[in-house]
Amino acid sequence: MDLIFQLAIIVTKIVLLTFVVVLPLVPLSVYFERRFSAVIQDRVGPNRVGIPLTLLGFKKDFHLFGLIQPVADGLKLFLKEDFTPDHVRKAFFWMAPALTVVPALITVCVIPFGSPLGIFGHTEKLVIADLDIGPLFIFSVASLSVYGITLAGWSSNSKFPFIGGVRSTAQMISYEIALGLSIIPVLMFYGDLNLSTIVQKQAENGWLLLPLWKNGQLGLPDINTVLFWFPAAIAFLIFTISIFAETNRMPFDLPECETELVGGYHTEYSSMKFAMFFMGEYAAMVIGSALIITLFLGGWSIGFGLDKYVTDLHIGDFYFGGLIHMGCFMTKLIAFILFFILVRWTVPRFRYDQLMKLGWVVFFEAALINVFLAALILAAPQLEKTIIGIGAVLLVIVTLAVIWVAKVSEENPKVLRA
Amino acid sequence: MPSYLFWLFSTIMLIGGGAVIAFRNPVSSAMAVVTCFVGLAGLFIGLSAFFVGVIQILVYTGAVMVLFLFIIMLLDLKDEEKAAKPLLPIASGIALFLVFTVQLIGVLSRTPDKTAPPLDPATLASAAAGFAPTSKIATTLGQGKLPDVHLIGHTLFTDYNMPLQVLGVLLLVATVGVVVLSKRQAD
């Protein structure tokens, strides 16, 4: 009986959190993208699709600000002809779209959506699998999604998709390094890889980028926390930009760059198979935003020492603070998705060599130096003054050396001959 | 680890491993290796070695095999797809298989039939005595959980600190070497 109860809870959590909370965010963010880009370009955007009351004899339609548009888009994609060209490698051609969507949705399982809910003395964490290796799990599963794009490019068996697939492979491998290195300072600070614990710590001691309270008391942070804010901010910057590159979002969407590659890796795809790539991209964006919020911006926590009061809210035996926290998480998530969209419609696309240079010459080194900086600041309270001084001098020397090497390699570019 | 999960992941691994040599297309073979690695990661995770399992996917599946695939796709191998049954590779393959089987039997027959200690709270709590009482490892062990990431980190940076540093230097030298070689080609 107990086993069945446990299983029921797990299945409920998977269905609710993945298919009711995260999956609808994908079409919703498409809608946001269209409306927000319209605002940026001084257009109106899709605002008509709603409930067609005129069909039922009423005078006016109920437009709902066009919120039904995603449903119409989805229906359109479903009903289009699904054409498989003759020259493709069929098995991989069919497998590739699934391989882009599935990893993005699997990573949902370690994201904490809210503080534990309590009913009848039974508390339940609002996370599907409370793994002790949260961020690593997300990285490893997300790194599998590169196969989808690569195989799509290769199995299409034509030139532009192939170039798109190859670009995507190189880009994702390059930025995975920056991604992994950039969060090492964050993990050193928390000393834990469990995302629920990380968010709980932020709720009590201040978000990583907003450390304005400690142990639930508002107040200015101490000197070490202030100093650690700088490596944290650098990590945030590198991590966010690398997530843009990993999810193939606009300034880095070289694998599907229309001006150079027609449609990139999905040129040969149509109907729902094409839509799956779209879904995979948006799902990766949602999960990336969720991870950034969880690590740097306090996850579900409301902040300012209010969280313990929210957790204690209850009607009888039902502790519903978790739902409020979940609402807070979703608000932050949608705000960050809007930020992603804002960047897409503001920043022009990078050139491919600029992209590679940014990844390998700037971010890789910056993340590495950032690790040492963070280690020095974290260890400083236990070290003697002279050792701190030597460490700081060494750090400055290494930084200058790296900048100098980067400059030198920039000044005399050798002519490449194949 | 429940035995049905062990059988599931072992079967995935074996199917992947068999498919590597059965497929004629190099890209299909590479994808079969990926399947094999995913099964292996599942086995690691089933043995409570979460970190090793995840690193298996992150490093081998997510990076090394992607590079393999990248190279295979760029080379555009056509000859390999033709049906060819050269005698020598097959014979040497069978010979290698036999040698490894003999070796495996030798190892298994010598290993004492000892069961691993169960990962119950009592065993874990007693293991916590070996670490500083306020440390993260000791507290997690005391709660009856296995902090495998912290334990691996602790072992690497205390008992195996020197080899780790040497490996780091080796990797750095290899990286510098790659950069030098690729730059020289440009002249």
Map the helices and strands.
The complex is a heterodimer of chains A (418) and B (187).
Chain A (H helix, E strand, L loop, with lengths): L1 H21 L2 H16 L28 H11 L10 H17 L10 E3 L2 E3 L9 H9 L2 H11 L3 H24 L1 H7 L4 H11 L7 E2 L2 E2 L4 H24 L11 H4 L9 H26 L10 H6 L1 E2 L2 E2 L1 H24 L7 H28 L5 H27 L7
Antiparallel strand pairs in A: 1-2, 3-4, 5-6
Chain B lengths: L2 H20 L3 H21 L3 H26 L11 H24 L10 H7 L8 H7 L5 H11 L2 H24 L3
Helix pairs in contact in B: 1-2, 2-3
In total, how many domains does the architecture of chain A comprise?
A: 2
- Helix fraction of chain A, binned, reads 55-70%
Number of helices of chain A: 16
What distance separates the N and C termini of chain B?
A: 56 Å
The assembly state of the depicted protein chains is heterodimer
Query: How is the largest sheet of chain A built, in terms of strand order?
Result: 1-2
The tally of helices of chain B reads 8
CATH superfamily of the domain at 1-78 in chain B: NADH-ubiquinone/plastoquinone oxidoreductase chain 6, subunit NuoJ
Order of helices and strands of chain A: HHHHEEHHHHHEEHHHHEEHHH
Main pleated-sheet profile of chain B:
none
Report the sheet with the most strands of chain A, covering strand number, pairing sense and barrel closure: 2 strands, antiparallel
Distance between the termini of chain A: 68 Å
Q: Over the alpha carbons, how many angstroms does the gyration radius of chain A reach?
A: 24 Å
Q: What portion of residues of chain B belong to β-strands?
A: under 5%
- Residue stretches of chain A low in confidence (pLDDT < 50, at least 5 long) are none
Low-confidence segments of chain B? none
Q: Provide the residue-averaged pLDDT of chain B.
A: 83
Structural class of chain B: mainly alpha
